[in-house]
Amino acid sequence: MPSTAAHRVRRGIVVAIGTVVILGLGVYGPATLLGPLPAATTTVIDVPATASGAVAPSLPSTGASGVTVASSEAGGAGSAGSGTPAPAAPPAGSVVTAGITDPVPLGGSTKIITALVVLSEHPIVDGTDGSPVVITAEDYADYVAYISQSARAVSFIANESWSERDMLRAMLLGSSNNHSDALARWAFGTMDGYLAAAKTWLAAKGMTGTTVVDATGLSEGSVGTPSDLTRIAQLAFETPVIAEIMAQGSATLLGNRQVENLATYLPDLGVTGLSLSYTDEAGLCLLYRAVVPVAGGATTGGDAAGGGDAAASTDPGTATIYGALLREPDYPTLEADLTALVSSASAGLKPTALTTEGTAYVEYETAWGQMAKGTAASTESRMLWATAPVEHSVSPMTVTTARAGSSVGSVTFPLPGGPVAVPLTLDSALTDPGPLWRLSHPIETISTFIASLG
């Protein structure tokens, strides 16, 4: 009997062990052969920051001024002056400023805001002159008042029907105050309606340093910062209908009225004026675009002859800058300041290579010994003012197996004009190690399998 009992015990142990082995094999095989693999270890490669080699722009220490350089993405296809969405405001951080940075009186620069706000509500479809604008008795009374004050005014009479485009021509080329008021009231019903719309528009563009209390800028209460006005200049030139108008030396308006472009200034330097005005409170104010020659290859920007920035310039060796010079004391000073700025841009701006295709930023190594790198998918360069090195940050993806060329994250360069993100792709494949490795590495495979169960 004892031998029989011992036999039964031994048999039970064998059965139990066999059961565990059989169950283990039932799970072990699928877990190792079919389960997920451990992710590759990720190591970010220490790539030195890129030195820009550019110099800072020459801006006057007096007055209030700002300048920005068009990036290779400036000038999208959309605009407020066509049937497509308006361009986004360039980032405030992309503007270099000097002198007074607080809000200052804007003078006639205010009319550019009026034009942009009106076009945001009543865009002019390409190939058309926009909606008809009927001159009211109130509009005509304004004209008479401006004439009596010797303020800039282009004639019109009550009940005339002007095209929206001609209204803009009179306001932008001739700096006509009566057309500014009339266009604002037409677009928004009343002057108060316009001012409310302008406040909303400025807030939406992030231009918190600018306030308008009229449509003309004759009031010293219409104020703005040089940073905001530089961005407004760029927005205006990226609006095709405005860029087309400002490219004209003169225009013939309703009733054969002739108007000259009063914003024309230093065209021999590649400058296209947007607004050139003077009031006692604001001093001389100039908003402009300049296409300047630079060494080192092509960049983007508008055509110096006009026609807008909707299509980027492919001229080799040029860069486009936008700027605002406010509170200039006199014309000789304005000319000297703008000449110095254009000269510094031409001499100092150079295309800065952010990265070149194939530069490795991250390295992957699998548990089974394969290695691959995440490399820049393209070569990227930008025109920069900054003299400090261009830093970058790497955002790698988690990778287990992947084909060569797969996206594995990005490298981002936080430039003043906004971040530039370059995709990273895998330079070689990371493949499955096969059944032999899976079965012979239970710790790696089983732990990954268990982790995958949540």
Molecular structure report:
This is Peptidase S11 D-alanyl-D-alanine carboxypeptidase A N-terminal domain-containing protein. Keywords: Membrane, Transmembrane, Transmembrane helix. InterPro entries: Beta-lactam/transpept-like, Peptidase_S11_N. GO terms for molecular function: serine-type D-Ala-D-Ala carboxypeptidase activity. The chain is α+β, with helices and mostly antiparallel strands. The protein folds into three domains: about 1-35 and about 435-450, no CATH class; about 40-50 and about 355-425; about 65-350, Beta-lactamase (3-Layer(aba) Sandwich). The chain contains eleven helices and 19 strands. A six-stranded antiparallel sheet has the order 1-14-15-19-18-17, with no helix packed on it. A five-stranded antiparallel sheet has the order 3-2-12-11-10, sandwiched between helices. α1 packs across α11, α4 (about 165-170) packs across α8 (about 240-245) and α5 (about 175-190) packs across α6 (about 190-205). It is elongated and about 125 Å long. The two termini are about 50 Å apart.
